[in-house]
Amino acid sequence: MAEFDVVTPSVKVADGTLPTATGKALSVVALRKTYGDVVAVDEASMEIAAGEFVTFLGASGSGKTTTLMMIAGFCEPDSGTITVGGRDMTRLAPQKRGLGFVFQQYLLFPHMTVSENVAFPLTLRGVPKDEIRRRVGETLEIAGLSGFGGRKPRELSGGQQQRVALCRALVYRPPVILMDEPLGALDKKLRDQLQVEIKAIQQELGLTVIYVTHDQEEALVLSDRIAVMRNGLIEQFDTPRELFERPRTPFVADFLGAANFLSGHVEKHTDEHTLVRLDETGGLLKARRHELATGTQIKAAVQPGRLRAGAPGDGFCTGTVETATYVGTLVRAGVRVGSGDVLLRLEVPAGRGPVAGERVGVTADPEDVNLFADERER
Ligand SMILES: Nc1ncnc2c1ncn2[C@@H]1O[C@H](COP(=O)(O)OP(=O)(O)OP(=O)(O)O)[C@@H](O)[C@H]1O
Protein backbone atom coordinates (compact mmCIF):
# COMPACT_ATOMS: atom_id res chain seq x y z
CA MET A 1 0.00 0.00 0.00
CA ALA A 2 1.16 3.51 -0.75
CA GLU A 3 1.93 5.81 2.18
CA PHE A 4 -0.24 8.84 2.90
CA ASP A 5 -0.12 11.89 5.05
CA VAL A 6 -2.60 12.15 7.86
CA VAL A 7 -5.97 12.82 6.34
CA THR A 8 -8.43 15.15 7.96
CA PRO A 9 -11.99 14.03 7.38
CA SER A 10 -13.88 15.93 4.74
CA VAL A 11 -15.29 19.30 5.64
CA LYS A 12 -18.56 19.61 3.78
CA VAL A 13 -20.64 17.81 1.24
CA ALA A 14 -20.41 20.29 -1.64
CA ASP A 15 -23.95 21.72 -1.43
CA GLY A 16 -24.56 20.82 2.19
CA THR A 17 -27.22 18.22 1.45
CA LEU A 18 -26.95 14.56 2.33
CA PRO A 19 -26.97 12.43 -0.80
CA THR A 20 -29.70 9.85 -1.18
CA ALA A 21 -28.85 6.15 -1.20
CA THR A 22 -30.51 5.32 -4.50
CA GLY A 23 -29.45 5.23 -8.15
CA LYS A 24 -25.94 5.71 -9.42
CA ALA A 25 -23.46 6.58 -6.68
CA LEU A 26 -20.26 6.86 -8.62
CA SER A 27 -19.16 6.82 -12.18
CA VAL A 28 -15.60 6.67 -13.42
CA VAL A 29 -14.89 7.19 -17.13
CA ALA A 30 -11.58 6.47 -18.87
CA LEU A 31 -9.46 7.33 -15.83
CA ARG A 32 -5.76 7.31 -16.60
CA LYS A 33 -2.65 7.97 -14.53
CA THR A 34 0.97 7.67 -15.55
CA TYR A 35 4.20 8.11 -13.63
CA GLY A 36 6.89 8.67 -16.27
CA ASP A 37 6.86 5.51 -18.36
CA VAL A 38 4.70 3.58 -15.88
CA VAL A 39 1.01 3.44 -16.73
CA ALA A 40 -0.40 3.02 -13.21
CA VAL A 41 -4.05 3.11 -14.33
CA ASP A 42 -5.09 2.70 -17.95
CA GLU A 43 -8.51 4.02 -19.01
CA ALA A 44 -10.43 2.58 -16.05
CA SER A 45 -14.21 2.92 -16.40
CA MET A 46 -16.97 1.72 -14.10
CA GLU A 47 -20.37 2.59 -12.73
CA ILE A 48 -21.17 1.83 -9.11
CA ALA A 49 -24.74 1.81 -7.80
CA ALA A 50 -25.77 3.25 -4.44
CA GLY A 51 -25.61 0.55 -1.78
CA GLU A 52 -23.07 -1.54 -3.69
CA PHE A 53 -19.94 -3.05 -2.15
CA VAL A 54 -17.25 -2.97 -4.83
CA THR A 55 -13.71 -4.28 -4.43
CA PHE A 56 -10.58 -3.51 -6.44
CA LEU A 57 -8.65 -6.77 -6.41
CA GLY A 58 -5.21 -7.33 -7.89
CA ALA A 59 -1.59 -8.11 -7.21
CA SER A 60 0.80 -5.50 -5.84
CA GLY A 61 1.36 -2.71 -8.36
CA SER A 62 -1.78 -3.43 -10.42
CA GLY A 63 -3.17 0.07 -9.89
CA LYS A 64 -5.78 -0.47 -7.14
CA THR A 65 -4.58 2.23 -4.74
CA THR A 66 -3.92 4.74 -7.51
CA THR A 67 -7.51 4.30 -8.76
CA LEU A 68 -8.88 4.71 -5.24
CA MET A 69 -6.71 7.76 -4.59
CA MET A 70 -7.94 9.41 -7.79
CA ILE A 71 -11.53 8.86 -6.61
CA ALA A 72 -10.57 10.25 -3.19
CA GLY A 73 -8.89 13.28 -4.73
CA PHE A 74 -5.38 12.65 -3.36
CA CYS A 75 -4.01 11.84 -6.78
CA GLU A 76 -4.75 13.83 -9.91
CA PRO A 77 -5.67 11.85 -13.04
CA ASP A 78 -3.97 12.62 -16.37
CA SER A 79 -7.35 12.25 -18.03
CA GLY A 80 -10.82 10.86 -17.44
CA THR A 81 -13.73 11.89 -15.21
CA ILE A 82 -15.10 11.00 -11.76
CA THR A 83 -18.74 11.72 -10.99
CA VAL A 84 -20.30 11.20 -7.56
CA GLY A 85 -24.07 11.49 -7.22
CA GLY A 86 -24.21 13.10 -10.67
CA ARG A 87 -21.63 15.81 -9.78
CA ASP A 88 -18.28 16.01 -11.58
CA MET A 89 -15.58 15.76 -8.90
CA THR A 90 -12.57 15.08 -11.09
CA ARG A 91 -10.66 18.22 -10.10
CA LEU A 92 -12.25 18.86 -6.70
CA ALA A 93 -10.10 18.94 -3.54
CA PRO A 94 -10.48 15.80 -1.37
CA GLN A 95 -12.21 17.65 1.47
CA LYS A 96 -14.84 18.99 -0.91
CA ARG A 97 -15.83 15.55 -2.18
CA GLY A 98 -17.59 14.50 1.03
CA LEU A 99 -16.34 10.92 0.80
CA GLY A 100 -15.43 8.69 3.77
CA PHE A 101 -12.00 7.06 4.13
CA VAL A 102 -10.68 4.11 6.09
CA PHE A 103 -7.02 3.25 5.59
CA GLN A 104 -4.77 0.47 6.83
CA GLN A 105 -3.21 2.92 9.30
CA TYR A 106 -6.09 3.94 11.54
CA LEU A 107 -5.14 7.64 11.50
CA LEU A 108 -7.05 8.35 14.70
CA PHE A 109 -6.26 11.49 16.67
CA PRO A 110 -4.31 10.15 19.67
CA HIS A 111 -5.16 13.04 22.00
CA MET A 112 -8.91 12.68 21.45
CA THR A 113 -11.23 10.11 23.01
CA VAL A 114 -13.04 7.56 20.86
CA SER A 115 -16.22 9.67 20.96
CA GLU A 116 -14.32 12.83 20.00
CA ASN A 117 -12.62 11.01 17.12
CA VAL A 118 -15.95 9.77 15.80
CA ALA A 119 -17.58 13.17 16.37
CA PHE A 120 -14.84 15.02 14.49
CA PRO A 121 -16.41 15.10 11.00
CA LEU A 122 -19.72 16.26 12.51
CA THR A 123 -18.02 18.94 14.61
CA LEU A 124 -16.33 20.26 11.46
CA ARG A 125 -19.71 20.38 9.76
CA GLY A 126 -21.20 22.46 12.59
CA VAL A 127 -23.77 19.83 13.55
CA PRO A 128 -25.51 20.76 16.87
CA LYS A 129 -24.06 19.14 20.02
CA ASP A 130 -27.13 17.05 20.92
CA GLU A 131 -27.33 15.70 17.40
CA ILE A 132 -23.60 14.84 17.51
CA ARG A 133 -24.03 12.97 20.82
CA ARG A 134 -26.95 11.00 19.42
CA ARG A 135 -25.24 10.09 16.15
CA VAL A 136 -21.92 9.19 17.77
CA GLY A 137 -23.75 6.95 20.28
CA GLU A 138 -25.70 5.26 17.50
CA THR A 139 -22.63 4.71 15.35
CA LEU A 140 -20.52 3.31 18.21
CA GLU A 141 -23.35 0.91 19.01
CA ILE A 142 -23.53 -0.33 15.42
CA ALA A 143 -19.79 -1.12 15.55
CA GLY A 144 -20.04 -2.82 18.95
CA LEU A 145 -18.12 -0.02 20.70
CA SER A 146 -20.70 1.26 23.18
CA GLY A 147 -18.89 1.78 26.46
CA PHE A 148 -15.56 2.63 24.75
CA GLY A 149 -16.41 6.28 24.01
CA GLY A 150 -14.27 7.68 26.84
CA ARG A 151 -11.10 5.77 25.99
CA LYS A 152 -8.11 7.07 24.08
CA PRO A 153 -7.08 5.17 20.92
CA ARG A 154 -3.93 3.78 22.63
CA GLU A 155 -6.21 2.03 25.13
CA LEU A 156 -7.79 -0.03 22.34
CA SER A 157 -6.73 -3.12 20.39
CA GLY A 158 -5.92 -2.87 16.67
CA GLY A 159 -9.32 -4.28 15.74
CA GLN A 160 -11.11 -1.81 18.01
CA GLN A 161 -9.10 1.10 16.61
CA GLN A 162 -10.05 0.09 13.09
CA ARG A 163 -13.71 -0.04 14.15
CA VAL A 164 -13.36 3.54 15.46
CA ALA A 165 -11.87 4.59 12.11
CA LEU A 166 -14.85 2.95 10.40
CA CYS A 167 -17.29 4.78 12.73
CA ARG A 168 -15.60 8.09 11.96
CA ALA A 169 -16.00 7.45 8.23
CA LEU A 170 -19.66 6.49 8.41
CA VAL A 171 -20.95 8.87 11.11
CA TYR A 172 -21.84 11.57 8.57
CA ARG A 173 -23.23 9.09 6.02
CA PRO A 174 -20.99 9.96 3.07
CA PRO A 175 -22.29 8.90 -0.35
CA VAL A 176 -19.29 6.60 -0.80
CA ILE A 177 -16.81 5.15 1.70
CA LEU A 178 -13.34 4.31 0.39
CA MET A 179 -11.32 1.65 2.20
CA ASP A 180 -7.70 0.80 1.36
CA GLU A 181 -6.67 -2.57 2.85
CA PRO A 182 -8.34 -1.59 6.16
CA LEU A 183 -7.74 -5.02 7.69
CA GLY A 184 -4.20 -5.45 6.36
CA ALA A 185 -2.53 -4.87 9.73
CA LEU A 186 -4.70 -7.33 11.68
CA ASP A 187 -4.20 -11.05 12.27
CA LYS A 188 -6.25 -13.57 10.30
CA LYS A 189 -8.83 -14.36 12.97
CA LEU A 190 -9.60 -10.71 13.63
CA ARG A 191 -9.65 -10.00 9.90
CA ASP A 192 -12.26 -12.71 9.34
CA GLN A 193 -14.38 -11.34 12.18
CA LEU A 194 -14.16 -7.73 11.00
CA GLN A 195 -14.98 -8.74 7.42
CA VAL A 196 -18.27 -10.12 8.66
CA GLU A 197 -18.90 -6.98 10.74
CA ILE A 198 -18.08 -4.59 7.91
CA LYS A 199 -20.38 -6.48 5.56
CA ALA A 200 -23.21 -6.50 8.13
CA ILE A 201 -22.89 -2.75 8.78
CA GLN A 202 -22.68 -2.00 5.05
CA GLN A 203 -25.87 -3.97 4.41
CA GLU A 204 -27.74 -2.64 7.41
CA LEU A 205 -27.02 0.98 6.51
CA GLY A 206 -27.10 0.52 2.73
CA LEU A 207 -23.59 2.01 2.40
CA THR A 208 -21.76 2.35 -0.89
CA VAL A 209 -18.23 1.04 -0.33
CA ILE A 210 -15.16 0.83 -2.55
CA TYR A 211 -12.62 -1.48 -0.98
CA VAL A 212 -9.05 -2.30 -1.99
CA THR A 213 -7.45 -5.67 -1.26
CA HIS A 214 -5.05 -8.18 -2.77
CA ASP A 215 -6.75 -11.02 -0.88
CA GLN A 216 -9.09 -13.04 -3.15
CA GLU A 217 -11.01 -14.62 -0.28
CA GLU A 218 -11.62 -11.26 1.37
CA ALA A 219 -12.91 -9.87 -1.94
CA LEU A 220 -15.23 -12.85 -2.42
CA VAL A 221 -16.64 -12.60 1.13
CA LEU A 222 -17.33 -8.87 1.01
CA SER A 223 -18.20 -7.82 -2.49
CA ASP A 224 -21.28 -7.42 -4.63
CA ARG A 225 -18.89 -6.86 -7.54
CA ILE A 226 -15.14 -7.12 -7.95
CA ALA A 227 -12.90 -5.24 -10.39
CA VAL A 228 -9.96 -7.55 -11.08
CA MET A 229 -6.99 -5.31 -11.92
CA ARG A 230 -3.78 -6.18 -13.70
CA ASN A 231 -1.04 -3.85 -14.97
CA GLY A 232 -3.29 -0.81 -14.60
CA LEU A 233 -6.17 -2.39 -16.52
CA ILE A 234 -9.51 -3.65 -15.24
CA GLU A 235 -9.51 -7.21 -16.61
CA GLN A 236 -13.11 -7.87 -15.55
CA PHE A 237 -15.68 -6.10 -13.37
CA ASP A 238 -18.32 -8.57 -12.30
CA THR A 239 -20.06 -10.43 -9.47
CA PRO A 240 -17.96 -13.01 -7.60
CA ARG A 241 -20.01 -15.79 -9.18
CA GLU A 242 -19.53 -14.51 -12.74
CA LEU A 243 -15.80 -14.05 -12.17
CA PHE A 244 -15.52 -17.56 -10.87
CA GLU A 245 -17.80 -19.30 -13.33
CA ARG A 246 -17.42 -17.12 -16.42
CA PRO A 247 -13.93 -15.59 -16.30
CA ARG A 248 -13.25 -13.54 -19.43
CA THR A 249 -9.49 -14.05 -19.42
CA PRO A 250 -7.12 -16.83 -18.33
CA PHE A 251 -5.67 -14.37 -15.81
CA VAL A 252 -9.03 -13.97 -14.05
CA ALA A 253 -9.59 -17.76 -14.07
CA ASP A 254 -6.21 -18.26 -12.47
CA PHE A 255 -6.30 -15.34 -10.05
CA LEU A 256 -9.66 -16.20 -8.54
CA GLY A 257 -9.74 -19.95 -8.60
CA ALA A 258 -6.24 -21.24 -9.39
CA ALA A 259 -7.68 -22.96 -12.46
CA ASN A 260 -6.23 -26.00 -14.25
CA PHE A 261 -5.22 -25.11 -17.80
CA LEU A 262 -5.12 -27.53 -20.74
CA SER A 263 -4.19 -26.69 -24.31
CA GLY A 264 -5.89 -27.98 -27.43
CA HIS A 265 -7.89 -26.91 -30.47
CA VAL A 266 -11.57 -26.59 -31.29
CA GLU A 267 -12.53 -29.78 -33.16
CA LYS A 268 -16.21 -29.08 -33.73
CA HIS A 269 -19.38 -27.52 -32.38
CA THR A 270 -22.75 -29.05 -31.64
CA ASP A 271 -25.86 -26.98 -30.86
CA GLU A 272 -24.95 -26.80 -27.19
CA HIS A 273 -21.31 -27.74 -26.91
CA THR A 274 -17.84 -27.03 -28.20
CA LEU A 275 -15.60 -30.08 -28.46
CA VAL A 276 -11.91 -29.61 -27.87
CA ARG A 277 -9.15 -32.05 -28.83
CA LEU A 278 -6.55 -31.83 -26.09
CA ASP A 279 -2.87 -31.58 -27.04
CA GLU A 280 -1.40 -33.37 -24.04
CA THR A 281 -3.71 -36.38 -23.79
CA GLY A 282 -5.44 -36.59 -27.19
CA GLY A 283 -8.73 -36.76 -25.26
CA LEU A 284 -11.93 -34.95 -26.21
CA LEU A 285 -13.09 -32.29 -23.75
CA LYS A 286 -16.66 -31.07 -23.92
CA ALA A 287 -17.27 -27.41 -23.03
CA ARG A 288 -20.42 -25.34 -23.15
CA ARG A 289 -20.71 -23.64 -26.53
CA HIS A 290 -18.13 -20.92 -27.16
CA GLU A 291 -18.00 -18.71 -30.26
CA LEU A 292 -14.58 -19.84 -31.46
CA ALA A 293 -13.79 -20.95 -35.03
CA THR A 294 -13.10 -24.64 -35.66
CA GLY A 295 -9.37 -25.25 -35.53
CA THR A 296 -8.68 -22.36 -33.11
CA GLN A 297 -5.88 -23.13 -30.70
CA ILE A 298 -7.27 -22.67 -27.19
CA LYS A 299 -6.59 -22.90 -23.50
CA ALA A 300 -9.28 -24.65 -21.46
CA ALA A 301 -9.64 -23.68 -17.81
CA VAL A 302 -11.43 -25.72 -15.12
CA GLN A 303 -11.41 -24.98 -11.41
CA PRO A 304 -10.06 -27.79 -9.18
CA GLY A 305 -13.40 -27.99 -7.34
CA ARG A 306 -15.26 -28.61 -10.61
CA LEU A 307 -13.30 -31.72 -11.67
CA ARG A 308 -14.38 -35.19 -10.57
CA ALA A 309 -12.53 -38.49 -10.38
CA GLY A 310 -14.35 -41.51 -11.82
CA ALA A 311 -13.48 -44.94 -13.18
CA PRO A 312 -10.49 -45.20 -15.58
CA GLY A 313 -11.70 -44.43 -19.10
CA ASP A 314 -14.40 -42.02 -17.87
CA GLY A 315 -14.27 -38.36 -18.84
CA PHE A 316 -11.74 -36.54 -20.97
CA CYS A 317 -8.58 -38.18 -19.68
CA THR A 318 -7.28 -40.94 -17.44
CA GLY A 319 -4.32 -40.63 -15.12
CA THR A 320 -2.68 -41.73 -11.90
CA VAL A 321 -3.33 -40.07 -8.56
CA GLU A 322 0.05 -38.77 -7.46
CA THR A 323 -0.96 -37.03 -4.25
CA ALA A 324 -4.16 -37.06 -2.19
CA THR A 325 -4.17 -34.72 0.79
CA TYR A 326 -6.97 -34.71 3.29
CA VAL A 327 -7.88 -31.12 4.25
CA GLY A 328 -10.96 -31.28 6.47
CA THR A 329 -14.06 -31.66 4.32
CA LEU A 330 -12.01 -31.94 1.11
CA VAL A 331 -9.37 -34.10 -0.48
CA ARG A 332 -6.91 -32.22 -2.71
CA ALA A 333 -5.62 -34.61 -5.34
CA GLY A 334 -2.95 -34.26 -8.00
CA VAL A 335 -3.60 -36.50 -11.03
CA ARG A 336 -0.76 -37.04 -13.51
CA VAL A 337 -2.17 -37.33 -17.06
CA GLY A 338 -0.96 -37.57 -20.66
CA SER A 339 2.67 -38.39 -21.18
CA GLY A 340 3.34 -37.22 -17.64
CA ASP A 341 3.92 -33.52 -17.95
CA VAL A 342 0.44 -32.42 -16.89
CA LEU A 343 -0.70 -32.51 -13.30
CA LEU A 344 -4.40 -31.82 -12.85
CA ARG A 345 -5.46 -30.49 -9.45
CA LEU A 346 -8.78 -31.76 -8.11
CA GLU A 347 -10.71 -30.85 -4.97
CA VAL A 348 -13.29 -33.48 -4.15
CA PRO A 349 -15.49 -34.16 -1.10
CA ALA A 350 -13.46 -36.09 1.48
CA GLY A 351 -15.77 -39.11 1.63
CA ARG A 352 -15.31 -39.84 -2.07
CA GLY A 353 -11.67 -38.85 -2.35
CA PRO A 354 -9.31 -40.89 -4.49
CA VAL A 355 -6.18 -42.42 -2.98
CA ALA A 356 -2.58 -42.11 -4.14
CA GLY A 357 -1.58 -44.62 -6.79
CA GLU A 358 -5.15 -45.14 -8.03
CA ARG A 359 -5.98 -44.85 -11.75
CA VAL A 360 -8.89 -42.46 -12.32
CA GLY A 361 -10.80 -40.96 -15.22
CA VAL A 362 -11.23 -37.19 -14.87
CA THR A 363 -14.56 -35.63 -15.78
CA ALA A 364 -15.92 -32.10 -15.92
CA ASP A 365 -19.40 -30.75 -16.51
CA PRO A 366 -19.29 -28.85 -19.86
CA GLU A 367 -20.81 -25.83 -18.07
CA ASP A 368 -17.68 -25.61 -15.93
CA VAL A 369 -15.21 -25.59 -18.81
CA ASN A 370 -14.09 -22.12 -19.95
CA LEU A 371 -12.26 -21.76 -23.27
CA PHE A 372 -9.92 -18.94 -24.27
CA ALA A 373 -8.30 -18.39 -27.66
CA ASP A 374 -4.61 -19.03 -27.07
CA GLU A 375 -2.92 -15.62 -27.30
CA ARG A 376 0.26 -17.11 -28.76
CA GLU A 377 -1.81 -18.09 -31.83
CA ARG A 378 -3.30 -14.64 -32.38
N1 LIG B 1 3.93 8.19 -6.58
C1 LIG B 1 4.32 7.30 -7.48
N2 LIG B 1 5.41 7.52 -8.26
C2 LIG B 1 5.79 6.65 -9.20
N3 LIG B 1 5.16 5.48 -9.45
C3 LIG B 1 4.08 5.19 -8.71
C4 LIG B 1 3.61 6.07 -7.68
N4 LIG B 1 2.51 5.51 -7.11
C5 LIG B 1 2.31 4.33 -7.74
N5 LIG B 1 3.24 4.13 -8.70
C6 LIG B 1 3.33 2.98 -9.60
O1 LIG B 1 2.07 2.77 -10.19
C7 LIG B 1 1.75 1.40 -10.26
C8 LIG B 1 0.45 1.13 -9.52
O2 LIG B 1 0.64 1.35 -8.13
P1 LIG B 1 -0.52 1.18 -7.05
O3 LIG B 1 0.01 1.63 -5.73
O4 LIG B 1 -1.74 1.81 -7.54
O5 LIG B 1 -0.72 -0.40 -7.05
P2 LIG B 1 -1.53 -1.31 -6.05
O6 LIG B 1 -2.26 -2.29 -6.91
O7 LIG B 1 -2.37 -0.48 -5.14
O8 LIG B 1 -0.38 -2.05 -5.25
P3 LIG B 1 -0.24 -2.38 -3.68
O9 LIG B 1 -1.20 -3.52 -3.43
O10 LIG B 1 1.18 -2.79 -3.57
O11 LIG B 1 -0.59 -1.12 -2.94
C9 LIG B 1 2.95 0.65 -9.70
O12 LIG B 1 3.77 0.26 -10.76
C10 LIG B 1 3.63 1.69 -8.84
O13 LIG B 1 5.02 1.45 -8.74
TrEMBL record:
All copies of the ABC transporter domain together span 26-256
Q: Which UniProt keywords apply?
A: ATP-binding, Nucleotide-binding, Transport
Q: Which InterPro entries match?
A: AAA+_ATPase, ABC_SmlMolc_Importer, ABC_transporter-like_ATP-bd, ABC_transporter-like_CS, Mo/tungstate-bd_C_term_dom, P-loop_NTPase, Transp-assoc_OB_typ2
Signal peptide residues are none
Q: Which SUPFAM superfamilies does the UniProt record give?
A: MOP-like, P-loop containing nucleoside triphosphate hydrolases
Q: Where is it found, in Gene Ontology cellular component terms? A: ATP-binding cassette (ABC) transporter complex
**EC category:** translocase
* Record EC number: 7.6.2.9
Q: Does the keyword Transcription apply?
A: no
Query: Its Gene Ontology molecular function terms?
Result: ABC-type quaternary ammonium compound transporting activity; ATP binding; ATP hydrolysis activity
Keyword field contains Metal-binding: no
Name of the molecule in the record: ABC-type quaternary amine transporter
**Organism per entry:** Streptomyces cahuitamycinicus
